[in-house]
Design brief:
mainly alpha; DNA polymerase, domain 1; hpI Integrase, Chain A; 3-stranded antiparallel β-sheet
């Protein structure tokens, strides 16, 4: 077991026989590659102390609690697989605890809550059309508030038959990232722009409707107030839900709808694929809970 190539072979065999969604298998494969990189510095037979060292190594790398939990879960799974094959006598990762996750990190809305938001009645005013457009943009693309306030009308462009919205991503200096506007979202935005009247391509995509600063670019605070107001109207009042939850909802629903990890990462503009992988891990936990196997065994 002290050979790097052996570990790589074990990983490939484990992933090949893993009965999980392709996206989960991809996330586990990437996670286990980190174990190989660590093992190169500590080429010993796997034991509890070595796995504990690996956990500390992950913490020192400043990875998120979700990413560390994903890496340890993948490692436990592979060790279980190797125990069944009698390649190792026991699973040294079973006694290693994960990292405590912060509360409300990825709280997403339920499908019912989203439908209530989308079915809210809107009047025939510019403000109402704008609020609906902001909601749909956040819900169907996962854009952050800071990215939304920076986009202009000209940032909507057509390429290969699709409507793209270019924006400045977190940590970037130019509008080099884009999201794809599905026809429904583009239609809602067009309806809002029509109600605005005369609009230049260099104008902000979303502007204030108040008498005090009409026509000025919306602020992130304004967007949060808009979303909170819509939440109240739709009776989305759970304490753990915030305007930022729409971003988590967009990513979660994309994954549930069948998006693979690469596509989900591109939409979310995550710097690290491990962040996106956390969504797949959370969903996999709900889709295939160990708790459900207890009653199956008893019956």
């Amino acid at each position: 077991m002290a050979n790097i190539h052996s570990w790589e072979n074990h990983i490939e065999l484990f992933i090949e026989n893993l009965d999980r969604k392709p996206a989960t298998k991809q996330a586990y494969h990437k996670a286990l590659k980190e174990w190989v990189r660590f093992y190169e510095t500590e080429p010993k037979a796997p034991n509890v102390h070595l796995v504990l060292q690996y956990k500390r190594y992950l913490v020192l790398r400043a990875l998120s609690p979700y990413t560390i939990s994903l890496y340890l879960t993948a490692l436990r799974g592979m060790f279980d697989f190797l125990v069944n094959l009698k390649r190792i006598p026991f699973n040294p990762a079973n006694s290693i605890r994960g990292i405590k996750k912060p509360q409300s990190k990825r709280d997403a809305l339920t499908r019912d809550e989203v439908l209530r938001l989308l079915n809210l009645p809107y009047d025939d005013t510019e403000e109402s059309a704008r609020n609906r457009a902001v909601l749909c943009l956040k819900l169907f693309t996962g854009l952050r508030d800071i990215s939304i306030v920076g986009v202009n009308v000209r940032d909507m462009q057509i390429k290969c038959g699709r409507v793209l919205l270019y924006y400045q991503s977190k940590g970037h200096e130019t509008k080099s990232e884009f999201v794809i506007l599905e026809p429904k979202v583009k239609s809602v935005i067009d309806e809002y722009l029509t109600k605005r009247g005369s609009v230049n391509r260099d104008d902000p995509l979303f502007v204030s409707c108040s008498d005090r600063n009409y026509g000025q670019r919306l602020t992130t605070q304004s967007i949060r107030l808009i979303i909170r107001s819509l939440f109240t109207q739709a009776h989305v009042t759970r304490d753990e839900i915030s305007p930022h939850s729409l971003r988590h909802t967009a990513i979660t629903f994309a994954v549930l709808g069948g998006a693979d990890i690469t596509a989900a990462r591109a939409m979310a503009s995550h710097r690290s694929i491990e962040t996106t992988a956390g969504y797949f891990h959370d969903i996999e936990r709900l889709d295939n809970p160990a708790e459900s196997y207890i009653s199956k065994y008893l019956h």
